[in-house]
Amino acid sequence: MAQTRLRRRSAIPWVFATALFLSFWAIFFHAPAGEHSSDNNLLFYFASADSPLKASSVPLTAGVVPKRFHSHNDYEQSIPLFKALSYGAASVEADIYLVNDKLLVGHTENELSPNKTLASLYLDPLVSLIRSANVDRQTGSRRGVFETAPFTPLHLLVDIKTDGPSTFAKLYSALEPLRFMGYLSTWDSHMMSTGTYRPSLITVIGTGNTPLESVQALGYDFNTPRDIFLDAPLSALPQDHRNMFNATISPLASVDFGSTVGLGWIAPAIGRKRIRRLVEVAHAKGIQARFWNTPITPTWVRKYIWQILLDEGVDWLNVDDLPGAKDF
Ligand SMILES: *[C@@H]1O[C@H](CO)[C@@H](O)[C@H](O)[C@H]1NC(C)=O
Ligand SMILES: *[C@@H]1O[C@H](CO)[C@@H](O)[C@H](O)[C@H]1NC(C)=O
């Protein structure tokens, strides 16, 4: 008892100090200007869910220009998927765990909840967004999630956190509603010597524990075209003499910025050279490049590094601060 009371009393200055620290941190390092207004737009969008205006006249992404930035750990945003789309992120990431035969979304096992599934947070909303985008259309190509760029595919990066083969198999079946509607980009080995790639509205790319073998196994018969691709290890591409990682397997290759460039950015010539070398190898294979784990704060360092990456031809910025990326 005495101990509890003591702990409570001494907690107050800590709470105070933490609050003070956080407010300073928010003022100096954060303060993304557009954040609140845009969240309000989103809330409006949800509030008006049964309004007849919702689907046809006020699409979520009205006026939003999609850009090549990737919403890292997207499920941690205040409103997963929708917030990223409303800022124009053309790529979103969901980490998945196979638990009791369900695909749960979260960063660590402690964050998982039985109602936060890949279907409830991502797959079902994507199906309904695409349905509403095409509700009045009888003919012509189907439109995707971006109102202003209806044929820009959305990259859905699925980071497998549990056992590779079994989680992959469950992911494959969870994608059936999108597959059935023809919404997934596919590759199959038929028709041409390099096979045929058919871009569609959503390109699913497995990362984390996604097994190369499971992705390789798809695409060789008409019933199972390859519609889950692999986020290749960017730093392994220069040594990939057997061309195991090529555009038919991997539209995208990624690497940890910290371990490949590290503090090289402080001596920009060195950092730039490391980045450029990897990007050149990837592009020669027709693969896009992404560096994750880029510095987040302070903002000027983050922007400086984003600029270096873009200058050197990197295709995707890895982003936590969606408003900051939209205005970059
Ligand atoms: C999900 O479950 C949590 C409790 O586990 C609950 O608080 C929350 O309202 C549920 N959300 C939905 C959308 O059902
Ligand atoms: C692409 O990679 C796959 C295996 O990952 C391989 O089977 C195929 O031959 C490669 N294609 C080319 C053109 O090298």
Automatic annotation (TrEMBL):
Q: Which GO terms describe its molecular function?
A: phosphoric diester hydrolase activity
Q: Tell me which domain of life the UniProt entry assigns to the organism this sequence originates from.
A: Eukaryota
Q: Has the keyword Transmembrane helix been applied to this entry?
A: yes
Question: What InterPro entries would the database entry show?
Answer: HAT_RTT109-like (IPR051236), PLC-like_Pdiesterase_TIM-brl (IPR017946)
According to its UniProt entry, one GO biological process term is: lipid metabolic process
Which parts pass through the membrane?
Answer: 12-31
Keyword terms, alphabetized: Membrane, Transmembrane, Transmembrane helix
* Protein family per UniProt: Belongs to the AIM6 family.
| UniProt-recorded name of the protein | Altered inheritance of mitochondria protein 6
